[in-house]
Structures are given as structure tokens and as C-alpha cells.
């Protein structure tokens, strides 16, 4: 099937089923262009909780589609690429969190949304990379368990020094691979560029950044900044959205370009199959949903 025919079939089936397509900022360009909404983890969670459509096609990775299901259990949530996981989300289990709580009694648990539904059930509140310092401050606690991303935990510690952060030692393989040498090389090659980095990057890379933020916060920063040139310290899928939003500005990745293989598993063919056959529908035990819902909803209430 040629690409235009494929897109037409997806759009007409989407219309007929009253579905919406949500896509993360790292998705392939053709998927982003087809989506009703493209955003970061926080925006997509919030949209899923407010959406009227009965079916959500979630172009991203499993924990994101699960979050949509947890926030809207009555809706059908479809994940077109069923094997799109997040290695960082697999680095912490509910048992790990229970053990951590036993070791630090009384310390609330903040879970990055990059966790399984079961792990979310063991935490007090979720956060994303766009609101992590705010979420930690909102707890008013002296110490906080933060899982699973050690780099985001260290970044939060630098922003919220009054709270002791107890990190879990997980990481994102895509961001962990970025080095200060790569950032230095890009800054040498593009001396007038501003360097934007995702808080999942190692501390030494973040220390070199002019701006640290979530994927959508990078889009806003690039748009509102007076600068004309930027180095993008995150997954290369961001370049598509940045170039679309700021067509007169120039964007460079690090070399080699950071790639999340799981985010690239979604294809137009899989989206069509997902709408035609309603696969893979996210199914979660109602008790798991109930336990995880509190943590996600509390995050959405933090302003
Ligand atoms: P954002 O919430 O910034 O979109 O990040 C999600 C993610 O998986 C980053 O690796
Ligand atoms: Fe997970 Fe990293 Fe991919 Fe984000 S970029 S989905 S954290 S593996």
C-alpha cells in the first residue's frame, strides 16, 4: 500500500471509530505528522485523562499507554507496537520499592512515570521530567525515595537542595550514553548554539547545558529563545518537532545521534493494524489500576 493510501485508511478508520492518535515527541516523523496530539509524557497523560474519545491509539512505549489506561480505565487504549517497552521502566519492580520503603520508613516514594503500572501502585506520587522538582517540593518531606532514574534524581537534588533525595540506580540507556565529550564537540562545531539537555542525561552533560527540560519544554524554550541555533541533547526524534515549530532556526543532534529503538517501533502499518484489529489493547488488572491511579492523579493535581 502506498503511503498516501495508508494515511487515508488510518484517518478514515480513526474517524469511523471515534479514536484519537496520541504520539510522543520521539516518534518517527510520519507518525508525529499523523497524530492528533504530539507531546511529552506529562502532556500525553493529561490529554488522556481529559479526552472524550473512547479509543486512544498511543504511539509511544508501553508505560505511556498504561498511564493512559490507568487514568481512563473506561477507554480502549491501543499500543500499535506491542513490544515497545522502556528499559529504564524495567529497572525497578514493586518488590524493589517495598524493600526500599522498609529501609527508609516514612520517606514518601516518587516514581517517574517511566515505571510499570505495578510499580506505580507502590508509590505515593508520580512525576515526569517536566514537573519532578515541583512534585518533590509539593510533598513537604525531609527525604524522598526517587525511582527509577538516578540522573533525574540527581537533577532534582540540585533543584531541591532542602530535601534529601534517595535515588534508585536506574537509567535510560539512550541518555546514559551521551557524554560531555560529545557535547563539547558539538559546542565547538556550533559555537553560537545553545545546548538543551534532557534531565535523563548524566550529570556531567547537564552541567554543560544552557537549558535542561522535558521534550516539550525544549520545544517551548527553542521557540521563545532569541537564539537561532541549538544543540539537542536528547533522542533524535525531537528534531522533527523542533524544525516544524521553529522553521527559521537550526538544530543539531549530538554525534552519533541518540536513538531510542523502542520509540522507533511504531509504523504507519502498525497503526492501521491497531485500528483494524484493535491490537494491542492495554489490559490491566482493576486492582493494579486502582493502586496506580492515586499516584498519577496526585501528580496531575500538582500545579
Ligand atoms: P518526556 O517526558 O520529556 O517527553 O520524556 C520521556 C522519555 O521517555 C524521555 O526519555
Ligand atoms: Fe525509555 Fe529512554 Fe526510550 Fe525514554 S528514551 S522511552 S526513557 S529508553
From TrEMBL:
EC number: 2.5.1.72
MF annotations from Gene Ontology: 4 iron, 4 sulfur cluster binding; metal ion binding; quinolinate synthetase A activity
Names of the cofactor(s): [4Fe-4S] cluster
Keyword list, A-Z: 4Fe-4S, Cytoplasm, Iron, Iron-sulfur, Metal-binding, Pyridine nucleotide biosynthesis, Transferase
Pathway the protein contributes to: Cofactor biosynthesis; NAD(+) biosynthesis; quinolinate from iminoaspartate: step 1/1
Catalytic activity: iminosuccinate + dihydroxyacetone phosphate = quinolinate + phosphate + 2 H2O + H(+)
InterPro entries recorded: NadA, NadA_sf, Quinolinate_synth_type2
Annotated iminosuccinate binding sites: 24, 41, 112-114, 129, 198-200, 215
NCBIfam families assigned: nadA (TIGR00550), PRK09375.1-2 (NF006878), PRK09375.1-4 (NF006879)
Protein family per UniProt: Belongs to the quinolinate synthase family. Type 2 subfamily.
Protein name: Quinolinate synthase
